[in-house]
Write a structure and sequence with these properties.
With 137 residues, the chain is α+β, with helices and mostly antiparallel strands. 30% of the residues lie in helices and 18% in strands. It has a single domain, classed as HIT-like (HIT family, subunit A). Strand 1 and strand 2 form a beta hairpin. Bound molecules: guanosine-5'-monophosphate (5GP). The site of guanosine-5'-monophosphate has 13 residues, from strand 2.
C-alpha cells in the first residue's frame, strides 16, 4: 500500500495532535475539522477500506470508539455527534487508510450536514438484496 498521510503520521514523519494510542489504534485531531473536536480514529494496520481490516484490528477499533466518543462529547459539550467512515473516492474518501471520523454536532447546526435521500422499495426487493448480502458473508 502506498504511503498515505496517515501512515506518515503513524510513522512519526508528520506531526498530529494525538488524543489516544494503543497497540492497534491511534486517535488524533482532524487538521481541517468540520466542527470543534472533530477527531480521527485509525487502525495501525495499513488497510484502505473497512472490509480489508483484520478481525483483530476491527475489534480494537470497536473497543475504543465509544470511549473516544464519550471523551469528545465531554470535552466539547456537543449535544450530538456523527461517526462517519468513508470507503472509496466516490464515497468521499480522500485518505486511503481506514479511518473513523467522530464529528460533534452543535446546537448552531455546525458539524456534519447529511443529505439522506430515501426510497421506498417493495418488500420483495428488500428481501432479495438481504438474501444476496447474507449469501456473501
Ligand atoms: P476522508 O474524506 O478520507 O474520509 O477524510 C480524510 C480526513 O483526513 C479529512 O477530514 C482531512 O481533513 C483529514 N486530513 C487530511 N490530511 C491530514 C493531515 O495531514 N493531518 C490530519 N490530522 N488530518 C488530515
Amino acid at each position: 500500500m502506498a504511503d498515505t498521510i496517515f501512515q506518515k503520521i503513524l510513522d512519526g514523519k508528520v506531526p498530529c495532535h494525538k488524543i489516544y494510542e494503543d497497540e492497534n489504534v491511534l486517535a488524533f485531531m482532524d487538521v481541517n475539522p468540520i466542527s470543534l473536536g472533530h477527531t480521527l480514529v485509525i487502525p495501525k494496520e495499513p488497510a484502505k477500506m473497512l472490509g480489508e481490516l483484520s478481525d483483530d484490528s476491527a475489534a480494537a477499533l470497536g473497543r475504543v470508539l465509544p470511549r473516544l466518543a464519550r471523551a469528545v462529547v465531554a470535552a466539547t459539550g456537543a449535544s450530538s455527534y456523527n461517526v462517519l467512515q468513508n470507503n472509496g473516492a466516490h464515497a468521499h474518501q480522500a485518505v486511503f487508510h481506514v479511518h473513523f471520523h467522530i464529528i460533534p454536532k452543535y446546537e448552531d447546526n455546525s458539524g456534519l450536514g447529511i443529505e439522506w435521500n430515501i426510497s421506498e422499495p417493495p418488500p420483495e426487493e428488500l428481501a432479495g438484496i438481504a438474501k444476496k448480502i447474507a449469501s456473501k458473508l
